[in-house]
Task: inverse folding
């Protein structure tokens, strides 16, 4: 593997080309989603060809993404939203070094732009082939079901739910328990909630969606710290990610417990499940302690 002698210039050049070639082809700036995924794919293909541009990137909620604060300062991110964000290049163009390495970067970005510009869905699927865990690819399919539910105006709801149920169960069976021991308790809670919730014929799709997203977000806080899920991230950033784990873990436990309480209002079997009733009671105690602290603060 050859590391580019001036990796900063190589990263600048690749970043600039992803934007410039997209603009040439589509007449507008690329979305943040497109930029993230094409940079990821460019980096991986170049690695296979023996070129390392040292892209700072990590797997998170919406797939593989660059670490913005470690990218060239010429990049401008407009709007922080996976759907609405666009990326531009400002000020001077990067230094153009004409050698075999930079020619290869040019050829790679050109080829990928021709293949994926305007085809974000195919691009996402391609990048997810590199996901370190099968669970991530299954969740990608599950997200299609969730979005499909919101747009499936011509579907019969019972049929849709029956089809969805199999994909839901399949996705969470692939959760890598051995690699994420920190999430064992949350995973057991989610599995019990899904199992009990889906037994009800007229189960609430919105509640299921909230539970899945809650677990997925919690999972991603740990994911980006796992081996193979990030590269070239500053030590200071990694330390910050580690420092917020406990807080986020508690926050998402509370959110899931609130969903359990919500589900129990329409499904009595929730409070008959030992795992779920334990979380239900824990949240009641947690809320009571919070109220007590607030009362003490107000009275003093």
Result:
């Amino acid at each position: 593997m050859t590391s580019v002698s001036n990796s900063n210039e190589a990263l600048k050049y690749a970043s600039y080309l992803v934007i410039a070639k997209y603009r040439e082809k589509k007449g507008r700036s690329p979305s943040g989603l497109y930029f993230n995924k094409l940079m990821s794919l460019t980096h991986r293909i170049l690695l296979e060809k023996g070129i390392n541009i040292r892209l700072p990137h990590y797997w998170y909620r919406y797939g593989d993404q660059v670490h913005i604060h470690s990218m060239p300062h010429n990049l401008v991110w407009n709007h922080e939203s996976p759907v609405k964000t666009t990326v531009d290049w400002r000020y001077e163009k990067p230094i153009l070094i004409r050698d075999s390495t930079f020619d290869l970067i040019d050829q790679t970005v050109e080829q990928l732009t021709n293949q994926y510009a305007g085809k974000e869905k195919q691009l996402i699927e391609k990048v997810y082939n590199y996901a370190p865990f099968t669970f991530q690819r299954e969740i990608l399919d599950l997200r299609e079901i969730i979005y499909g539910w919101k747009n499936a105006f011509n579907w019969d709801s019972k049929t849709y739910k029956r089809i969805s149920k199999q994909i839901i169960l399949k996705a969470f069976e692939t959760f890598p328990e051995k690699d994420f021991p920190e999430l064992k308790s949350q995973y057991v809670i989610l599995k019990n909630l899904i199992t009990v919730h889906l037994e009800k014929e007229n189960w609430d799709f919105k509640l299921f969606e909230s539970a899945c997203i809650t677990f997925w977000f919690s999972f991603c806080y740990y994911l980006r710290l796992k081996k193979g899920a990030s590269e070239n991230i500053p030590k200071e950033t990694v330390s910050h990610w580690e420092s917020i784990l406990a807080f986020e873990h508690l926050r998402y436990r509370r959110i899931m417990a609130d969903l359990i309480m919500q589900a129990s209002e329409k499904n009595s079997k929730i409070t008959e499940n030992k795992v779920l009733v334990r979380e239900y009671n824990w949240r009641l105690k947690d809320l009571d302690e919070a109220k007590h602290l607030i009362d003490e603060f107000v009275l003093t």
In short: Residues 1-6 have pLDDT under 50 and may be disordered.
